[in-house]
Amino acid sequence: MSTTPGPTTDAEPEAGFRRAPAVLRCWGARGSIPSPGADTAGYGGNTACVELRLGSRRLILDAGSGLRPLGSQMAREGGGVQADIFLTHFHWDHIQGFPFFSPLYDPRTSIRIFAPEQGGRDLRSLFATQMGPIYFPVPFEAVAAEIRFEPLREANTWEENGIRVRAIRVRHPSVTLGYRIDWQGCSVAYLPDNELTGGSYEVGPDWRARLTSFLEDVDLLLHDAMYTDEEYAHRVGWGHSTPHEALELAMEARVRRLLLFHHAPDRPDRELDRMVDGLRSTAKESDHHLSVAAAREGEDIPLTNHEES
Ligand SMILES: [Zn+2]
Ligand SMILES: [Zn+2]
């Protein structure tokens, strides 16, 4: 996988992003709970947050603890922050960065939050509850930014300025969505929490075929690969997949690049390296020209326009 260096410094602002029209930057790839420490420093300990730069537009996928440093960077860029945040679901590891997103407290900020409906619950109240006085000292009323909440359902397609975002319901507790984003021949799919095989979910009998077609020919797939095969045997129904299952899906859908995501909090860097090596060998033995890596915090990944290549 071709990458450019990690996060830029203040002295060299956003150099990586300027070089390519479409770039993905991972601000958090960990699942469940932030996991700082020497063993996880390589891939990073922040929970799910991914930034997509498509031309002059910025999309944010999930609001895990990685949203906090992203917010600091956006605040440093100055001016009024405008952001579109697409949430996959409301589990802690996907929303816990929200109260710490510093542009929230700036009246010049304007944010749209797209998120799956949860049984008719008002989306604003789901965020306000997270910031209730028992859990958090600053009330939701202290938010100065203008926020618009946009409920999404499965199969919703959102299009604006040539960016198309499609959603599919995935197999995970609560109503959880996965997204596919297409822009000027570049495509990326983001399914951080998805149990591909076991468990029981209300997704219909043809779900696997629909998922494969949803992902067909996507350039870059970020997919849940939280458990090893051995760990998964004791965690069926918890809503997550294994690296082998993610690889099988990527091959089935003819994905070009697979990025393992939602790393287990206890997974040390060396184990993730071994997982990736194992999958690369399997992919090489097959006829699929698929590149495999694990999502790494701070890494910029340019997206390729396959309509031109
Ligand atoms: Zn998660
Ligand atoms: Zn979850």
Topology (elements, then pairings):
Layout: H1 15-19, E1 22-28, E2 49-54, E3 57-61, H2 67-77, E4 82-86, H3 92-95, E5 110-116, H4 123-130, E6 146-152, E7 157-160, E8 163-169, E9 177-183, E10 186-191, H5 207-215, E11 220-224, H6 229-232, H7 243-252, E12 257-261, H8 269-285, E13 291-294, E14 300-302
Parallel strand pairs: 3-4, 4-5, 5-6, 10-11, 11-12, 12-13
Antiparallel strand pairs: 1-2, 1-14, 2-3, 7-8, 8-9, 9-10
Residues 89, 91, 172, 193, 239 line the site of one zinc ion.
When the domains are counted, the total is 1
Please state how the strands of the largest beta sheet are arranged side by side: 6-5-4-3-2-1-14
Q: What order do the helices and strands follow?
A: HEEEHEHEHEEEEEHEHHEHEE
Could you tell me the CATH topology label. Answer: Metallo-beta-lactamase, Chain A
CA-CA gap between termini: 16 Å
Helix fraction?
10-25%
How would you describe the overall organization of this protein?
By secondary structure, this protein is an alpha/beta fold. It is 22% helix and 25% strand. The chain is built from 8 helices and 14 strands. It has a 7-stranded mixed beta sheet with strand order 6-5-4-3-2-1-14. Strands 7-8-9-10-11-12-13 form a 7-stranded mixed beta sheet. Helix 7 packs parallel to helix 8 (269-285). The chain binds zinc ion (2 copies). One zinc ion (ZN) is lined by residues 89, 91, 172, 193, 239.
Features:
binds zinc ion; alpha/beta; Metallo-beta-lactamase, Chain A; seven-stranded mixed β-sheet; single chain; about 300 residues; disordered N terminus
